[in-house]
Amino acid sequence: MPDIDTLLNQAVIEGEIESGAPVALLIAQCGDLSISSDVVSGRPARSNRWTEAEESFVRNNLGILAEDEIAKILGRSPIAVKLRRYRCLEMPPASDHPEYYNGRAAARTLGVDDHTLIKLLELGKIPYWRLGGRETYMMRRVSLWRFAVNPMNWCYFWRSVQDLRRIIDPHLRRLIARQKERWDDEWWTPGQVAEYYGVGHTDVNRYIHSGRLERTAKFGNNWVLRSEATKEGIYFVKGKGKWRPEWSEAADCFILIARSLNVFYCEMAGMMKMAEKSVSHRRRVLHQEGLVQQLIDKYGLEIDYDPATGEVKASRETYGWMFPRVDWDYRWRR
């Protein structure tokens, strides 16, 4: 047997129905309560007069629901809801609601294009919802501003943060400017990290992918905080101008032997599972720093070395067995 609260709610709902309130509106406000079918079927025709409950429903849900959806819940036509919203309630359209942003207005506020904003929404950086059949992107004003004033999100619209004139809302512009003064850090791209250390941006990306340098964000580019890139114990050596991977002496000897037999750098890189550019660079470093003769003497390599030109030569009969897949006859005919 239902309790007294359920019976009272039942009586209130049926009284609202008798007064002409649409059932869909009552269900949207109070939940799907059990309503006797005879009351629903036998109620008088609803008056066209708007009730306070209907107007309150429009005020509270415009922007969250489209006018078509509100009209369906209220049991009215979309044009009736539109006229009531415009003439009597004096409210702007759902897409221009003062507490919400549509996708285009949000993009203009951040100083980015529409595609960038849609990507941010789909990545879940800003809470949003779709409005109506046109599937308009909508989000709360406070949600967008909370995202915009957080320095950890500035990499997603870094050009606008650097040039605050791109932020069209003056209040939001002041908030971001004040936050910039308090934030003792900066977002860097791999190119800026490379410029700071005097290395190539590919070297920085390689360190990021290997986990030696922590990537804070990925949005079109790898983004690194300046404090992370310049912290103590970083792997780069500032001012050297060249990046040196961790080479073993066994790898250096292999490069010298392969080069002395005229093995191509691309073939060496494939066998060593490294980049061709890294292998050729290491070969030049060995010659420039005078390490070739040291390796030959230390390991007794049967290689002829010319310190003036850097050329190395060896007998195919001595080391040819190390490269079984090389077609020596074909290479000689060429």
Please, how many domains?
4
Which percent range fits the helix content? 40-55%
* Total beta strand runs: 8
Radius of gyration (Å):
36 Å
Largest sheet: 3 strands, antiparallel
- Mean pLDDT across all residues, rounded? 76
Q: Give, in spatial order, the strands making up the sheet with the most strands.
A: 1-3-2
Please, how many helices?
20
Quaternary class: single chain
Low-confidence stretches: 32-45, 237-244
- Structural category is mainly alpha
Head-to-tail CA distance between termini: 99 Å
**Shape verdict:** elongated
- Sketch the topology as an H/E string, one letter per element: HHHHHHEHHEEHHHEHHEEHHHHHEEHH
Percent strand equals 5-15%
Structure report:
With 334 residues, the protein is mainly alpha-helical. It has four domains: 4-91, no CATH class; 100-182, no CATH class; 187-229; 249-333, no CATH class. Helix content is 52%, strand content 7%. The chain is built from 20 helices and eight strands. The chain has a three-stranded antiparallel sheet with strand order 1-3-2. Strands 4-6-5 form a three-stranded antiparallel sheet. The chain has a two-stranded antiparallel ribbon with strand order 7-8. α5 (67-74) crosses α6 (78-88) and α12 (190-197) crosses α13 (201-210). The radius of gyration is 36 Å and the shape is elongated.
